[in-house]
């Protein structure tokens, strides 16, 4: 009986854990949808900013005029919550390898991290975390964290020009994800040259009423904001995709454990019932054997 009670407790615990995993799985699926919808909603605005840059750069190409930066700031997007597999470890390893291939040691680059779970690993790999940002819990909080990053970068540029690299995961099909690096500031010269060389999509050529010295920085600021917003949104979508995959594996393991526990419970219960039946039969036979001579003696006296 104690063994049966212990198995029953394990079965109840497995059922409770299964319910928690299914709830987290559903939340991850819903979160992926909202972040992917946010990225798609920005596609039109992103294209409008690119068209504005193409219009400005059409008559004032800036390729080759960007000042060279000597310092590097690596902004790494991780996660604040666990149960996402190797989401943070894969991102940090990718950032270290990318900086090494780029000719920068990770100890010399400034490390900015968004996500509590990634901060510990970044401190081990980079030596220290120069800036930490708390990830938003919904789409509505992304704009505030993007503004915080931009203000921090503007303050950092007062100490000397530096380039800003964005490292983040982006979701793929079937709840998978991959690592990505983007140069945010200063704008890449190849990208500027490509923007300036593209043909205008319409027959009417654009006219920019504002001076290009004002229009270009304004458009670059909007481009930087949109790119950072999309980076945070895609990273959060990839995080939930990783969590969804982890919950799917956990759900499969729990279901296998439940089936195993149920089989063990039924086998043990059948064994206990069989032993009890044998005890009853043995007791009955023993009781019948003891009453047999007494019944014969009583019959003889009568």
TrEMBL record:
GO cellular component: proton-transporting ATP synthase complex
Coiled-coil residue windows: 240-267
UniProt keyword list: ATP synthesis, CF(1), Coiled coil, Hydrogen ion transport, Ion transport, Membrane, Transport
Keyword Lipid metabolism among record annotations: no
Topology in membrane: Peripheral membrane protein
Primary localisation category: membrane
Family: Belongs to the ATPase gamma chain family.
Function: Produces ATP from ADP in the presence of a proton gradient across the membrane. The gamma chain is believed to be important in regulating ATPase activity and the flow of protons through the CF(0) complex.
Protein's name according to its UniProt entry: F-type H+-transporting ATPase subunit gamma
Species of provenance: Syntrophotalea acetylenica
């Amino acid at each position: 009986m104690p063994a049966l009670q212990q198995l029953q407790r394990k079965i109840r615990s497995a059922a409770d854990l299964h319910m928690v995993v299914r709830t987290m799985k559903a939340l991850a699926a819903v979160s992926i949808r909202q972040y992917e919808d946010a990225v798609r909603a920005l596609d039109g605005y992103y294209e409008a900013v690119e068209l504005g840059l193409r219009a400005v750069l059409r008559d004032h190409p800036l390729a080759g005029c960007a000042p060279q930066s000597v310092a590097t700031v690596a902004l790494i997007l991780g996660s604040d919550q666990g149960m996402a597999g190797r989401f943070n470890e894969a991102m940090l390893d990718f950032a270290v390898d990318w900086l090494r291939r780029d000719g920068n040691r990770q100890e010399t680059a400034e490390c900015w991290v968004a996500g509590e779970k990634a901060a510990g690993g970044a401190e081990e790999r980079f030596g220290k975390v120069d800036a930490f940002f708390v990830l938003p819990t919904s789409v509505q909080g992304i704009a505030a964290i993007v503004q915080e990053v931009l203000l921090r970068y503007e303050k950092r540029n007062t100490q000397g020009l530096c380039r800003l690299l964005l490292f983040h995961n982006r979701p793929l099909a079937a709840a998978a994800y991959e690592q990505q690096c983007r140069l945010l500031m200063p704008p890449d010269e190849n990208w500027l040259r490509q923007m300036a060389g593209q043909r205008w999509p319409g027959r009417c050529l654009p006219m920019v009423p504002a001076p290009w010295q004002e229009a270009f920085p304004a458009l670059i600021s909007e481009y930087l904001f949109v790119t950072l917003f999309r980076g945070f949104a895609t990273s959060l979508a990839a995080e939930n995709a990783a969590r969804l995959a982890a919950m799917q594996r956990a759900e499969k393991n729990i279901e296998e454990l439940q089936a195993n526990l149920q089989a063990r419970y039924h086998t043990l219960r059948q064994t206990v019932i069989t032993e009890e039946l044998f005890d009853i039969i043995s007791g009955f036979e023993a009781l019948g054997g003891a009453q047999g001579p007494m019944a014969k003696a009583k019959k003889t006296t009568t």
